[in-house]
């Protein structure tokens, strides 16, 4: 099957009646941004055997590729609208592309965004997804907005991504239920878009946790010229993690393991009561620390400094 047949069959679908004025098939797509909104845009590349196993399930790989990019929109408080896909394939394997396209559009439907273009080339398997969304200018959650006296929160549970990898590569053994939960968290990370919409008017800064809490929170600290203290005993851990490892390992996963795609955010004193109320009413977030004067991320376990082993993934280390 040729390049254009493949695009037409698996990556082109009807976009009439949406914000897509002109979709896949021309030199560019034409997109209509809602009035008074800013465009939020982000791209992520996933490489076979670096970010996912080359022989992994193509449906899950596609879903994951879109979801990790959408997580960046969530971290900015943006609503997803469109995405493009640059796909490099070793061969035009129709079964693979068909399953990939199924997973991709399933995630696109779930989160309400439309594929509006891309590029298809031959070479070692690689997937780049560029997402675009809209955000009200004063509601964007930048990394630079944290201030001394803000409280620090994280959504969901931390460490599941790292624990999932340990299960997938066979270095730990867990019961079937935990194994299923963890591999679900790894292959189907949930971009916290709805939560981000609730938080955008209340948070002073936010980032998504993709490289590990300490590494990503470090970016907020640097951009905001502040320090952060994390109270390790408060870290939210899933029951799967609590069952499958000893405490020091649980904390290491939660602090330095990647692939969680939760939101880490700060809240200024004026908004703390409102956020605490939302949490009491069921908002999926936990207060894990505070922003202080100084530099960097400091972890404490019941009043003692807590040393962590790694500080997140860096491609050039
Ligand atoms: P050009 O030569 O102008 O770059 P291409 O031949 O690369 O155009 O692509 C033709 C059309 O198909 C363009 O509209 C492009 O956006 C779209 N396209 C190519 N690959 C993909 C893909 N993997 N997913 C979605 N759209 C794609
Ligand atoms: Mg092209």
Major β-sheet profile = 7 strands, mixed
Share of β-strand residues = 25-35%
**Pairing-aware structural class of the strands and helices?**
alpha+beta
First-residue to last-residue Cα separation: 40 Å
Query: How many beta-strand runs?
Result: 13
- Classify the fold: give the CATH topology of the largest domain: Phosphoribosyl-aminoimidazole Synthetase, Chain A, domain 2
Helices and strands, with pairings:
Blueprint: H1 3-10, E1 20-22, E2 30-31, E3 38-47, H2 58-76, E4 79-89, H3 94-111, E5 114-122, E6 126-135, E7 151-155, H4 160-168, H5 176-187, H6 193-199, E8 203-209, H7 213-224, E9 227-231, H8 239-244, H9 247-256, E10 262-267, H10 269-280, E11 285-292, E12 296-301, E13 304-305
Helix pairs in contact: 2-3, 2-6, 4-5, 4-9
Adenosine-5'-diphosphate binds at residues 7, 11, 24-27, 85, 87, 115, 117-120.
Q: What distinguishing features does this structure have?
A:
317 residues, alpha+beta, 60s Ribosomal Protein L30, Chain: A, Phosphoribosyl-aminoimidazole Synthetase, Chain A, domain 2, 2 domains, seven-stranded mixed sheet, 10 helices, globular, binds magnesium ion
Explained architecture:
The chain has 317 residues and is α+β, with helices and mostly antiparallel strands. It has ten helices and 13 strands. Helices cover 36% and strands 26% of the residues. The strands form three sheets. It has a seven-stranded mixed β-sheet. Strands 3-6-4-5 form a four-stranded mixed β-sheet, with helices on one face. Strands 1-2 form a two-stranded antiparallel sheet. Helix 4 (160-168) packs across helix 9 (247-256). The chain is globular, with a radius of gyration of 20 Å. The structure holds adenosine-5'-diphosphate and magnesium ion (MG).
